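Hi F.,

I've been meaning to write this up properly since the lab meeting, where we talked about keeping a consistent format for the predictions we share between groups. The idea is simple: the sequence comes first, exactly as it goes in, then the structure tokens exactly as they come out, then a line or two of notes. No screenshots and no reformatting. I'm using this chain as the first example so we have something concrete to point to.
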Amino acid sequence: MNEADIILTKQITGGKTPGVHYLIFDKDSIIHRFHKGYTDLKNHLMVDQNTTFNAFSVTKTFTALAVMQLFETNRLNIEDPVIKYVPDFRYSNKITIKQLLAHTAGIPNPIPLSWVHLEEEHKTFDRIAFINLIFKKFSKSKSNPNEKFLYSNLGYIVLGQIIEQVSGGTYEDYIRDNIIQPLGIKPDELGFDIQKNNLQAKGYQKRFSLVNGILGFFLDKSKYMDKSEGRWKPFKNLFINGTSYGGLSGSPDGFRKYIQELLKPNSVLLSDEYKEKLFIENYTNSNKPTGMCLSWFRGALKGQEYYTHAGGGGGYYCEIRIYRDLGIGSVIMFNRSGMMDERFLDKLDKYYIDN
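Output, unedited:
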């Protein structure tokens, strides 16, 4: 067993997560795969190659890519003011699409743990009513446009609205038709649905933990969580209210195929010219680097630059990463809660990249 596998095995044996799946790959093939643990503790179901996990905020990279596709085809300009596309936009009319993408619009970011609904409520869920209510409640900006970096899920809800306004269809349909399907990714590998036939990993929260105590302040645990399974408390199947900031779920292979395409020159998703714009770090008005490109965070490991995004919330945590100079990507997915950008891939990828 190699060092990365030892670290991940200890996550399970040490009670840090019920299950995990890790992939590292180049643009053509898999370098290493590891999966272990449980997708369902009660029924003793194990993680396998096809297990799907909620990806939460990793979805933002798809939203940004969709916007750049519309930019490349001259259906919008990211330097345009948002209000040009969303007439009822509540914030400054000077805020641009690019500032939403780079999280410098100054729009607030309330904690979205309660922005969920049960699977059985999905068909009747009124997303427009939710959006109107949330923007009415949080209608005041926190800073001036491009004054500073301020991560905002609300900003990506607005980007979803722009995609729908410009494309004339739903956000979900645009992502399926223009990103997922062109790559030959199957619906059970990546999408906006909860997979059946035990493909979807249950999301868990450790019972005796600070986060479990805090959860009660944000959501009704009796409604959204099931009975405890040993040291873990499972979430029921949930949908995110704002799909464009966190609605995707999928298997690690689904996300692998997406990242592999971004590693390739002349991608079917976006020309090299416009793909390059995704990975340019944004600077504020005072010329301070933000560490954020257009939805992708910038970092370095062993002297190698990477671009990454994490997705965390109740029951799941994941990260995706691209080392553009090396032509390598990686994915890690857990079925336990994660509430911050952990940069967990730093602990694993270091065994596979060169200085």
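Notes:
The domain at 3-349 is CATH 3.40.710.10 (Beta-lactamase).
Residues 134 and 154 are 9 Å apart (CA to CA).

If this format works for you, I'll send the rest the same way.

G.
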